[in-house]
Amino acid sequence: MKKITQYLYIGLFLLMIGGGFVLNFGNLTEATKEAVEEYDYDAWSIIIENRFNDNFWNRYGFIEVNGTVHKILGQRQMNGMVKLNNGKLVSTVEYRDVSYSAQNVIDFYAKLEEMNVPYIYIQAPYDICKYDSQLPAGIEDYSNYNADVFLQLLSENNVPNMDLRECLHEDGMDHYDSFYKTDHHWTIETSFWAYTEVVNCISDILGEAPDSKYLDMGNYTKTTLEDAVLGSNGRKTGIVYAGLDDITMLVPNFETQVDLSIPEKDLYRQGDFEDAFMFYERLDGNNLYEMLQYNVYMGQDYACAVETCQNAPVDANILLIKDSFARPVSAFMGTVYSEVHCIDMRYYEGNIEEYIQSNDIDIVVMMYNPYMLTNEGAYKFE
Amino acid sequence: MIFSSLFFIFVFLVVVLAVYYALEPLPIIFRNIWLFLASLFFYAWGEPKFCLVMLGSIGLNYIWGLLVDRFRDSKGIKALLAVAVASNLIVLFIVKYLNFTVSIVHSVFGEIFTIPQILLPIGVSFYTFQAISYVIDVYRKDGEVQKNPLNVGLYIAFFPQLVAGPIVRYDTVAKQLTGRKETVADFATGIERFLVGFCKKILIANTLAVVADASFESARMGFDLGADFAWLGALAYSFQIFFDFSAYSDMAIGLGKMFGFHFNENFNYPYVANSVADFWRRWHISLGSWFRDYVYIPMGGSRVKMGRLVWNTFAVWMLTGIWHGANWTFILWGFMYFVLIAFEKVTGLPKKLKSAWAKGIYRVGTLLAVLFGWIIFRSATPGTVIRYVKAMFGLGQGGLHDDRVILYLSENWLFWIAAILLSIPMYAGIKAWVAKHPKLESVWAVIKPFALVGLALITVSYLVINAYNPFIYFNF
Known about the structure:
The structure holds 2 protein chains of 2 kinds. By secondary structure, chain A is α/β, with parallel strands linked by helices. Chain A contains 13 helices and 13 strands. Chain A has 2 domains: 1-57, no CATH class; 89-379, no CATH class. Helix content of chain A is 38%, strand content 19%. In chain A, the strands form 3 sheets. In chain A, strands 5-4-13-11-12-10-8-9 form an 8-stranded mixed beta sheet, with helices on both faces. Chain A is globular. Chain B is mainly α. Chain B contains 21 helices and no strands. Chain B has helices spanning 6-22, 28-44, 48-70, 77-109, 124-139, 149-157, 159-162, 170-179, 184-221, 227-258, 276-282, 285-296, 306-324, 328-347, 349-352, 356-378, 382-392, 404-411, 413-422, 426-435, 438-464. Chain B is globular and about 65 Å long. The mean pLDDT of chain B is 94.
């Protein structure tokens, strides 16, 4: 090996590992501190390594490098994500035995019947279309299959349910235009469409409907930000590989007087729709990688959030058992009903029956996307 | 800790190198103390309790070394040597094979007693064989006995070869322990070798591991597995294990050079072998030569009657199989190689082949045998082996075609090409060609370090995104 090669190797290598050490020194210190604070001496090395890896210097820069390599090589799978034929990023779901979750819902419905509280299960769509998966050959996804089996079990046991996947299909909406391409969530406009479907469904059950202005998108101001969204799927692959999405926000033109109360966060917001439900700081364009822009509605998932509307057209208390798909939906619902109680079973630890009784709930709406079927804990109501 | 991790590269290695070279002006003992302590930390990182087993092995073999050296000319030296080797093998048996043995006893006689589940200390097979090498080499005077236990400790525990080899024999490094000299040239070639191994492991082995895992998991779970994908999966595993294992050896050899140690090569393009015996002269050379020199030759080697030759071969290959893990599949794998090697020894067929066609056909047959061997090696149970092989011939429930073939070929086309090209001695040819063109050689001398370090930085991005990074040496 020539002398120049030797010195270049030594110089470049020491620069790489030494530079990496210096730039990650703070990360290393924090990781070590975290391991010490955990007091889990059997797992200290795992804690340090995981923390060190997760906070590696310029993490998103490296993700972009990796995404660029994947893009150049035409790879359709990266970091747990699959790029569909139409360019959308998705994560596939494995086959699940959903009978346990279905039985829990069936039992829950039986209890609600005893309590004389109506119930409906609403199946939100997954970002992979049931009728056109767009998956590359060789990759399978069971999200819709799991949901089909689940809904069939509910129907066989007379549990009221509504399948928004079918509604979307029947309404002739383009499935993939209804979702962000870099995120697993539906767009805000699709959320609004879902909100109208949910309100119509509740109206049928309660026999009381709001004025049509609440359900007409024409009465909402549309604001579109271009290339402003890097969804949770896109953050795993980087912008070069995934691209960016636009986001269109809808805010009512009519007068609203609403409150948002989140006891666990000691958070209380009131005013009009925007004051209470919109978290515009989530749209920090300089921080695309860290912010989940979809969270502009309601901020994030909470174990329990209560929306109160002073000028609600329908005097009803709704319990919405929800996942993140229902967050914008719940914000729109917050202008229609006197109270909307949003419970996220992934985080909520209280007794749901007691909650229903103590809050005079008029109807329980449960709205999950198919991915939730991978989390049995979200279907436990005791 | 594994080499292919961010923590190893950007923390552990930096600190170890910095302190090591800061101690350079001092006598070598200080650098050895530091390397020994660093090696203990490296080993304890995963499971501190396992360190006790290793320290016990070091202490035990330090004493055996002294005793063997002291009583080398005594009558009972053979017995002493046998006890020394047996003590190492007993420890290995307890931690690695006792649970398996008990499960066999239970399957035959029912559950007559229970023992606690024993966790396998990582790398125990490697360092136990090194420890045995120390005692035997001292006896054979192939290396000086170490009066200082630290040197025995460093020989056994030295982190570059601790968890995945190569099995460094004592005679190879005896003098280097106390008399090595670190040089700029060694350091630079060590860096190059380490980076080559690092990129091979992450880019090729880990990428093809996804393909192999998908196919073998289908067979294990009884899912659909098309014939074409079964073949592709077997091929992917053949490349995965080669690029994984040889990459670890590259990194170990490179790291050794950074600290002034010179280890022997462990791989020599095994997939260009022209016979099964030739394959084993090229694959995991340190293990093959260990068995040759410490088991096969002491048993009489090849210069014995045919029956004895077959028995010696049987013993070595069954031990080779069992060394890789306590599982019927490893025993089956070892037995397969016994049959193939014994066939070649008895018939002498590879040497009798004269025409290029015949040699070519035999070479293909050798590769197919190796590939089927890997199916046995990779499968968790003999049942999975049968399901897998049936699938390869379209007799499984997946039929002949599986869409995953197109997916994994189109996804990873570059890595397949790289795997094939790097499996043949192409680089040496390119190097020789470049050497004939001085101008090109001068340019290449400058470009090469930038290219390799650049590739290493891309490889780091795979670690940052937590891409699949399996560690396949837990059994060893």
